[in-house]
Amino acid sequence: MSTVSISNEREATTEEGHGLYIPGVDGHPRWIWPADSKRPTFLQFFQPISWKQHIYVIVIRLIFLLRLQQLVFSSIPLKADFTRKEDGWAVFTGTPGPNRKLVIINKKGEIAKVAVGKMAIPNLRNEAFLLRDLQANEQRFSFRVPKLIRYKDEELVMEKIPSQGTWSRFTQQHATALWQLRRVKAHNGLLSDWREWDRIHERINQLKNEPHADIPVGLITDLLKMVVQEDRTAAVSYGLAHGDFTPWNTLRTNDDQLAIIDWELGQTEMPLGFDFFHFHLQNGIMVERKSWQQIYRGMQEVLTEETRSALFGNAEADVDRYLHLYLMYHISYYLSLYQQQQDWHQQIYWQLDVWSDALVSLLDPEDQRRALLSRLFDGLKNRDYAVLKMEHEDPLALPPGSDLDILLSREDARQLVDLLERYPLLARAKVVRKSFMTSLLLVLQDGQILSVDLIWKLKRKATVFMDAGRMIQRADKNRYGVRVVSAQDTRRYVELFYGLNGAEVPAKFGHLETFPGEANSLAENKGSQGLGNRAAYLLDTLRTMVYNRGFLITFSGVDGAGKSTIIERVVTMLDKEFRRPVKVLRHRPSVLPILSAWRYGKKGAEEKSMASLPRTGNNTSLVSSLLRFSYYYLDYLLGQWYVHFRYVLRGYVVVYDRYYYDFIIDPRRTNLELPGWVTAAGFRLLQKPALNFFLYADPDTILARKQELDRDTIVSLTKQYRNLFEGFEKKNTSGQYVNLENVVLEDSLQAIRTSLLKQNV
After folding, report:
1. What are the b/e assignments for 140-158, b being 16+ CB within 10 Å?
2. Alpha-carbon distance 498 to 463, whole Å?
3. Which homologous superfamily does the CATH classification assign to the domain defined by 549-760?
4. 8 Å CB contact between 160 and 203
5. Is 86 helix (H, G, I), strand (E, B) or coil?
6. Which InterPro entries does its entry note (predicted)?
7. Cα–Cα distance between 387 and 398 in angstroms, integer?
8. What is the distance of C-alpha 52 from the center of its chain?
9. 267 φ, ψ to 5°?
10. DSSP string covering 669-723, please?
């Protein structure tokens, strides 16, 4: 086992002792202390904030109280020349990276910092300079800073300030401290004259020219976009900033005073608000694990008029602009560090996610769907995945109606769902989880939609028909760096998928045969695995019935209102954009055949019905009308349950081309002569569709489309339908009733789409 030195290597002795340690996330020692220590001195490095961290501290103290530390913690040989005869020392080995330093607490109440990383030396020199400057002006401050004891070469020694922990939130004491710091070096200047402005550009150029595999391309692109959009000729207010103002660097002294430690990254010329933003961002990411939206809202809640004045010198200051400047510096600085760092800890990935979301949110891209696709594929970058049947090589150029099927592991799917649900431009999201896949319907703030299926097992009902893991292994990488399922695997997938569904292969895939029987020979469909698949399919079906059931949509309107065209486009919309199976019914459930079918047969009745114009029947008998209506009403009464169980509970959207409302408003259309109150009374026992659209237009427009009705009839029926729908809407009956003027097709479709989004997501 190697020996760990806790002193400067130039002063290390060869005499060895033994210590105990707690490892970091990388497995290397993070905190080290004497093996015979009776107190957990190393906890002075740790400022608990969350309840989990407080429990952690309690457990550690309990271990020491029961003298179990030798059994619980690992032993390590070490060199401890200046502390080997003392109890009460501890070492923090530092965060990996160029800024790394050892931090040593000794029994004298001193803290020593020893540079390890190449940037730690200038950082310690900077901290020594700032501590001297702050001590010279300490009478101006309400907060405490550590007294500098000595600084020489690569080692800085200062007093340790006794504390009772820290604050988990930004308080008035923090605001007052930042107000006092701002005034120390307050001045105004052009952004172009800020000495860090050129360094930000240099760092971004280096990140572009020397890309790191784990740094998202979209993050660098958005960072550059934010820099380019900034007006470099505008004036900026500057002041002294701590540089790493966080809960763990702002202590609560024993007399409830604020103490600020670790001034290594402090600068005398930073845009105002820097420390305020840093406090909330770092605490939100590292401790509270919040999304960018939550962090941003938290900052806005704290920024009262008084706090704005204290931090920015003016309650009307453009806070978002200063937030932009902070993010440009902060993100470019740390990305340049991580670019040089070989081993990354998990917290770096947390930061990358929040930074990406922050930039997207503040930049407000013109094409939100394209930005979401960029975020999605950045999230896939370091995962094993393959896109199935990708319609366009460039993922950012995916057509609006296109969706994505992505093969990946179940755990990667879970993490990707979490990532996408936190996307800042997301208005709504619908997540449908099944035993073999997760489906997402993501609705953006500008109304665009992206549907994504994350698949870890390729199944049709209870049958597994291909090995998703092997397809991922055999995937090819296209010229845009996207991993896509190989051509051979795509061919087999198409053949099996359409074969198992009993459908013909679409022409766009070329001439392919279907071989559904081959799937049954897979081991996963036999024995206990086969039983497991059937059980999973049953649970998926039950889950769909509860969480993803379908609904009914009806379209009504006089002949020529444009129903057929609208319905055709809506069916495509539901299928392609909303990923919903669709069943179209005409006028009624049709579990009972049309009446004339009893006389002419089904085919003959349909031909006769198609050949006749609406409202041309000659029935005038009340008795005959009652009998005919009773027959059709029975079809509705029984058929609604057939439709419900056959389609709605299985997730289908059932689209009615005309509905029961025709019996209420226009019974003559079905050759009935009945008063409206009779047919209206029957509606009470029927299920109410979720969405109901009455399409109308002015008579001239309708007559230009079809000449089946005269002008007066069009006007009369339109008025009655609109009154009926307005009445239903006012009564707050279940479902929406929309009178929709259908003149411009795209406007009508957009209105329907908006209603579908509210209903479906």
Report:
1. ebebbbbebeebeebbbbb
2. 13
3. P-loop containing nucleotide triphosphate hydrolases (3.40.50.300)
4. no
5. coil
6. Aminoglycoside_PTrfase (IPR002575), Kinase-like_dom_sf (IPR011009), P-loop_NTPase (IPR027417)
7. 13
8. 25
9. -140, 145
10. GGT----HHHHHHHGGGSPPPSEEEEEE--HHHHHHH--SS-HHHHHHHHHHHHH
- Give Dmax (Cα) for the chain: 115
Instruction: List the end-to-end C-alpha distance of the chain, in Å, as a whole number.
Output: 58
CA 436 to chain centre: 21
Does residue 502 come out as left (phi exceeding 0), alpha (psi in the -120 to 50 range) or beta? left
Q: Is-above-0.90 flag for pTM?
A: no
Q: How far is CA 35 from the centre of its chain?
A: 46
What pLDDT, in 10s, does the model give residues 114-134?
A: 999 889 999 999 999 999 999
Number of neighbours of residue 666 by Cβ within 10 angstroms: 21
Question: For 448, left (φ over 0), alpha (ψ -120 to 50), or beta?
Answer: beta
The rounded distance, in Å, linking the Cα atoms of 102 and 95 is: 9
Overall average pLDDT of the 681-701 stretch = 93
- Partnered with residue 111 across adjacent β-strands are 105, 158
Answer for the pair 635, 582: CB distance below 8 angstroms, yes or no: no
| Sequence letter at residue 59 | V
Which helix H or strand E contains 378, and what residues bound it? helix 368-380
Left if phi > 0, otherwise alpha if psi is -120 to 50, otherwise beta: which for 423? beta
pLDDT digits (tens, 9 = 90+) for 409-424: 999 999 999 999 999 9
- Parallel/antiparallel/unpaired status of strands 404-408 and 449-455: parallel
The SS3 assignment for 454 reads strand
Report, in angstroms and rounded to the nearest whole number, the Rg of the chain calculated over CA atoms: 35
Cross-strand bridge partners of residue 110:
159
Q: How far apart are CA 714 and CA 614, in angstroms?
A: 13
The values of phi and psi at residue 583, to 5°, are -125, 125
What is the enclosing helix (H) or strand (E) of 238? strand 235-241
Residue boundaries of the structural domains of the chain = 4-93, 172-238+268-363, 377-543, 549-760
Class of domain 377-543 as given by CATH = alpha beta
Q: What is the pLDDT of residues 68-127, one digit of tens each?
A: 999 999 998 876 454 444 667 899 998 888 889 999 998 888 999 999 988 999 999 999
Dihedral angle sign, alpha carbons of residues 180, 182, 185, 187: negative
The amino acid sitting at 240 is L
What distance in Å separates the CA atoms of residue 400 and residue 421, rounded to the nearest whole number?
20
The amino acid at residue 438 is T
Residue type, 231: D
Return the number of other C-beta atoms located less than 10 Å from residue 641's C-beta: 13
H or E element: which one contains 114? strand 110-115
Provide CB contacts within 8 A for 615, sequence distance 6+. Answer: 666, 668, 669, 709, 713
CA distance 21 to 173: 35
Strand partners, 84: none
For residue 601, pLDDT beyond 70: no
> Please, are residues 687 and 644 in contact by the beta-carbon 8 Å criterion?
yes
Q: Among 660, 575, 673, which Cα is nearest to 624's?
A: 673
Distance in angstroms (rounded) separating the CA atoms of residues 487 and 494: 11
Q: Counting Cβ atoms within 10 Å, is residue 707 exposed (0-12), middle (13-18) or buried (19+)?
A: exposed
Unique residue bearing structure tokens 């359409």: 498
Residue type, 221: T
Q: Which amino acid is at 183?
A: R
User: Who contacts 465 (Cβ-Cβ below 8 Å, separation ≥6)?
Assistant: 458, 459, 496, 497, 500, 518, 519, 522
DSSP code of residue 144 = B
Position 250: which residue type? T
DSSP classification of residue 67: T
Any idea how long the chain is?
761
Q: DSSP string covering 278-303, please?
A: HHHHHIIIIIS---HHHHHHHHHHH-
d(CA 33, CA 41): 8
